[in-house]
Every structure is written in structure tokens, then in C-alpha cells.
Write a structure and sequence with these properties.
Shape: globular
CATH topology of the largest domain: TIM Barrel
Protein name: LLM class flavin-dependent oxidoreductase
Low-confidence stretches: 172-183, 448-452
InterPro entries: Diverse_substr_monoxygenases, Luciferase-like_dom, Luciferase-like_sf, NTA_MOA
GO molecular function, one term: oxidoreductase activity, acting on paired donors, with incorporation or reduction of molecular oxygen
Strand order of the largest sheet: 1-2-5-6-9-10-11-14
Helix content: 25-40%
Radius of gyration: 23 Å
CATH class of the largest domain: Alpha Beta
Family: Belongs to the NtaA/SnaA/DszA monooxygenase family.
Mean pLDDT: 89
CATH superfamily of the largest domain: Luciferase-like domain
Pfam family, one: Bac_luciferase
Number of domains: 2
Length: about 450
């Protein structure tokens, strides 16, 4: 093509503890078996995706003191899954969600550097935080960290990890085993860090990895979260799917990154998304409605709204009107272990009531509207057009895609949509880089110890 097009970044995720994956489908696989993760990863690599993404669940969620089993119960640890996938893929990045609140810098930095070595430079870390005392009980840290301090710890955690990764210079791993090489390596790995959260010193045991630093991802919508992402992340998750608000978020993240001295292109913006395809637009819409009804049953709808109302809503008819009671944000949590998605429940409920009145929504209809997640519905050509247009207009740099059907759902996208994106020059036809950082078009990290 005569005009160079912005290249679309694609990640593939395996849904876990959420309502989006229809685990009850007869074609669904296991959330534990390695075959599930292997199939999705290999399909993504066949489609020339940039990376495979795995979320994290540190505690079994509870509802009213009992195990919350609306989707699945149980998930393997993130890092062993990614290490296993490194052996059955060649180019695909391997990104895991790992908590900066409950881990320690030395151990986690060592694990990620090891994954980067084992995969030949394909490791990534989605940095998340927590102030959840319920999850913290598993780590004997329940309630130890105030909500306002979670990013303070995360920022210092990331600074320490980078100090550890940079404690080995670039030439230490590549040096020949001559006398000079041994002298250089004798001094490698030394670190000393004292801050508000961490006070550690010693020698980092893992040599500098192929990428120098694993690729860092982060999700943050609050001003504090946006500053953290813009200052320290290579990619940031965007919660926005409508073009105008997505463009505003895109501009804001890049402006914040520039104010922190980062060059253009240093931060990629990636919303999550799903898709439903059909031979015609009408068929796709029909399939989409069927998927939504299977994702959000009547009971699931009640439970999703309980996360905002913080009340037991099991007595309300899913096909009836919205609950006529106000939220109870100060009461004991009805749902434990689920992320808080709406900071102001009163404003959220007021908005939902206006919407339900205007559109005649039942409780379940409202839940489908508020928590349904499929953004791209149509023929393969229509979906390719919409994805490409969104990226070319700077709504994002790409998408992290999942399917309601795990593990085989992504096959449909790779077989039918990917070739169309490749034909228009918006998606690679082969991998051009050696590492995940290369393929994402990210600058290499500077060699040498970073300041705290």
C-alpha cells in the first residue's frame, strides 16, 4: 500500500474468574488443563498476535460467606503456565498479571527475568495492586495497606525490580569466558535499595535477560493510576470502547507520558474486547444475543448488580424492575474478592435507573447492558473494518481479544478476520522482531542502574 498504516497490536487472553467465558458450553475446555492454554497461545501465534495474556486470581471469591461459583473455581498459578507456554511457542509474548502488593521485588524480579531467558525475550508483567483485606488474609497482610498507598508501594516495587534487572550490565551475559569477562561478572548483580516500602541489599542472581526488562503493562483510570501507567508502563489497559472517550484517554496518557520525559510511542494503549462473527450482520446479531443470554443468566445478573448495591438481591425477579432500595456501600461486603468497578454506587445506580426507565430494561437487561462485553459484532469484513478504524483514529493501539468460548473461540477470528487486516496492511504477516519489546515497537530500556 502507498500509505503506511498504523500497525494493530493484538493480545489474546484466557478468561478465568469472570462471567464472560461460557464454561457451561459443551465445547468449553478446562480452566486448569495445559491443553487449554496451549491451544489459545498457538492459535494467537498462528494469527501473528503480539502476546498471550493471563489474568490472576489470588483468592476464591465468596458470596455471603460461601464460595462464589458462578463461573469457575480454581486456577493454576500464572508463572508456571507462561513458562510451559514458552516451550510450545516461538514468537508470542507471554504476559502475566502479578500483584505488587503481596509479592516481594527480589523474588518476582528473578522469576520474570528467568521467564525472559527461557522464552528468548518474550516476558511481560501486568502490574496490579490491591488494598483488599479479604485477599490479603492469604498473605497475612489483610488490611495492612491503605487504599491510597497501593500505588506508592507499586511505584517503588517497580523501581526496585528495574534496579535488580539493571544490576547486570549488558555485556555480562554475552562476555566470553576470559579473564576480563570473569572480572566483569564478579561485580555483576550488586544492589542496594532503601525506600519507604523496601530496604534490601545483596546480589541479584539472574543475569540480564534478552529484553533487559520484561515489558510492563498496567491498568489505571484514576489520575493516580494514569500517572503511574504513563510514567512506568510500556502499555496501559484502557476501559474505554466508545471512540470519543477512548481518544480522550489516549491523548491524556500520551500527554502524561510526555510530561514525565518519555519519548513519543513509549506507551501503548490497549482495551480488552471480544467478538461475535456471522455470515451476515443479522446472523451475527442473533448469535450475539444468544451469547449474552448465556453469559448473564438471571442469577448472574443478580450477583453482578450485588457488586454495586452491596445487598443480597436474590429476592428480586431478574425479569422484573431494578431493586427499589439504595446501595449500602458501608455494610459488610456481600461479594468478597471481586474488584470494585464503580467508585460511586449511588451515582451509578441513579444513572442505571434513568436508563432502565428510558429503555424499559429489566434487572437482567440492565446487567447485560452494564456488564456485557462484546464490542465487535458482524461479518468478518465488518469486524475488521471497525477494529482497524478504531486504531487508525487513535482510539487505541490495538486490542486484547478474548472469546466467550475457551479454548477454540479465537480460531474463528484468526481464520476469518486476521487475513482481512493483513490484506489492508494493518497487521503483520510475519514476526519481524526478536523479542516482545521489538514486536511492540517499544524502545529498549537503558542499560545501567536506574534511580529510585
Amino acid at each position: 500500500m502507498s500509505e503506511a498504516r498504523k500497525q494493530i497490536i493484538l493480545g489474546a487472553y484466557v478468561g478465568g474468574v469472570n462471567h464472560h467465558t461460557v464454561w457451561s458450553d459443551p465445547k468449553a475446555g478446562s480452566q486448569i488443563a495445559f491443553s487449554t492454554f496451549r491451544h489459545v497461545a498457538r492459535t494467537a501465534e498462528r494469527g501473528r498476535f503480539d502476546f498471550f495474556f493471563l489474568a490472576e486470581g489470588l483468592a476464591l471469591r465468596e458470596r455471603g460467606g460461601r464460595i462464589f461459583d458462578q463461573d469457575i473455581v480454581g486456577r493454576p498459578d500464572t508463572l508456571p503456565v507462561l513458562a510451559a507456554l514458552a516451550a510450545v511457542t516461538e514468537h508470542l509474548g507471554l504476559v502475566g498479571t502479578l500483584n505488587a502488593t503481596f509479592n516481594e521485588p527480589y523474588e518476582l524480579a528473578r522469576q520474570l527475568a528467568s521467564l525472559d531467558h527461557l522464552s528468548g525475550g518474550r516476558a511481560g508483567w501486568n502490574v496490579v495492586t490491591s488494598f483488599d483485606a479479604f485477599t490479603g488474609r492469604n498473605f497475612r497482610r489483610g488490611g495492612f495497606l491503605d487504599r491510597e498507598d497501593r500505588y506508592v508501594r507499586a511505584q517503588e516495587f517497580l523501581a526496585v525490580a528495574r534496579r535488580l534487572w539493571d544490576s547486570w550490565p549488558t555485556d555480562a551475559i554475552a562476555a566470553e569466558r576470559d579473564e576480563g569477562a570473569f572480572l566483569r561478572q564478579k561485580d555483576a548483580g550488586s544492589f542496594d535499595f532503601t525506600g519507604r516500602q523496601f530496604d534490601i541489599a545483596g546480589r541479584f542472581s539472574t543475569p540480564r535477560s534478552p529484553q533487559g526488562h520484561p515489558v510492563i503493562l498496567q491498568a489505571g483510570v484514576s489520575p493516580q493510576g494514569r500517572d503511574f501507567a504513563a510514567g512506568g508502563a510500556d502499555a496501559v489497559f484502557s476501559p474505554y470502547h466508545r471512540l470519543a472517550e477512548a481518544q480522550e484517554f489516549y491523548r491524556d496518557i500520551h500527554a502524561r507520558a510526555a510530561r514525565q520525559g518519555r519519548p513519543p510511542g513509549s506507551v501503548k494503549v490497549l482495551p480488552s474486547a471480544s467478538f461475535v462473527l456471522g455470515d451476515t450482520a443479522a446472523q451475527a446479531e442473533e448469535r450475539h444475543r444468544d451469547v449474552l443470554l448465556r453469559q448473564i443468566s438471571g442469577q448472574t445478573a443478580q450477583i453482578l448488580l450485588e457488586s454495586v448495591w452491596n445487598r443480597d438481591l436474590s429476592g428480586y425477579d431478574p425479569d422484573g424492575p431494578l431493586p427499589d432500595v439504595d446501595p449500602d456501600p458501608t455494610g459488610p461486603r456481600v461479594i468478597q474478592g471481586r474488584a470494585v468497578l464503580h467508585q460511586d454506587p449511588f451515582a451509578t445506580v441513579a444513572e442505571w435507573r434513568e436508563l432502565a426507565a428510558a429503555r424499559g430494561y429489566s434487572l437482567r437487561d440492565l446487567a447485560i447492558h452494564a456488564f456485557g462485553r462484546t464490542e465487535f459484532v458482524g461479518t468478518p469484513a465488518q469486524v475488521a473494518d471497525r477494529i482497524d478504524a478504531f486504531v487508525q483514529q487513535d482510539g487505541s493501539d490495538g486490542f486484547i481479544l478474548g472469546s466467550h468460548l475457551v479454548p477454540s473461540g479465537l480460531d474463528e477470528f484468526v481464520d476469518q478476520v486476521v487475513p482481512l487486516l493483513q490484506e489492508r496492511g494493518s497487521l503483520r504477516t510475519d514476526y519481524g522482531g526478536r523479542t516482545l519489546r521489538d514486536n511492540l515497537g517499544l524502545p529498549a530500556p537503558a542499560d545501567g542502574t536506574l534511580a529510585a
